[in-house]
Structures are given as C-alpha cells and as structure tokens.
Prior knowledge:
Elements: E1 5-8, H1 12-24, E2 32-33, E3 39-43, E4 46-51, E5 67-70, H2 74-86, E6 90-91, E7 97-101, E8 104-112, E9 118-124
Parallel strand pairs: 1-4, 5-9
Antiparallel strand pairs: 2-3, 3-4, 6-8, 7-8, 8-9
Amino acid sequence: MYSHMMVGANDIDRAKTFYDALFGAVGGKPGIVDPKGRLIYMHNGGMFLVTKPIDGADATPGNGMTIGFAMTSPAECDAWHAAGLSAGGKAIEDPPGVREGAGMKLYLAYLRDPDGNKLCALHRM
C-alpha cells in the first residue's frame, strides 16, 4: 500500500546525522542527498525521505502521527533506540519493551527525531 514515508526537517545536516545513526544501527546505509537537497534512505524494500518543506515554512511534526519501522528482534529495536538517543533523538512513551493487547505481543521502542517527528521500532513477537 505504501510507497514511501517523508518527514520535514529544518536542518538537513542535523537530520542526516540522526537518521544515518538510526538506520545504521539496523544495517542500513547512510542517506544520499538528491539534487533538491532531500535525504533518501532505502532499506529492506522501503524508502524514507527527509526534506525541508516545499512551501518554505518551518517543518513541524504531525500531531497524532507515528512512523513505525519493522525490526527483526527486540535487540534490533534496542540498538535502533540507543543509536537514535546518541544522535540527538528523545526517548518518549514507556521505555523499550513488550506490550500486550488485543491478542498481540509486540516489542516497541519510541523516539522523537530532532524535529519532533514520532518514530517507533516494532517487532512482532
């Protein structure tokens, strides 16, 4: 259903430092910068982009929006979370761990990127 996800950033260099660390922790390659100045990450068949808003206004996080990234294990979620924290992200919600409900058991880790976008690492147990 989805082709890609894109978030806004006010400082592309700061965003690149954060997302290079975040995706690098789970085997991804550093982002590439296209001719329009957008960051592009491709990993495990997905594409994630970071850009300054095209309308010239400041980037702001979407209220109620969360971008979830599929992980292969709880350890991968933890590595992702630790890398994000060390690269300028902020821990939010409960600490990384197992959540159960609606007949599902998930391992979740939440962060906000330096621009406030809400991110989640998810492993289905």
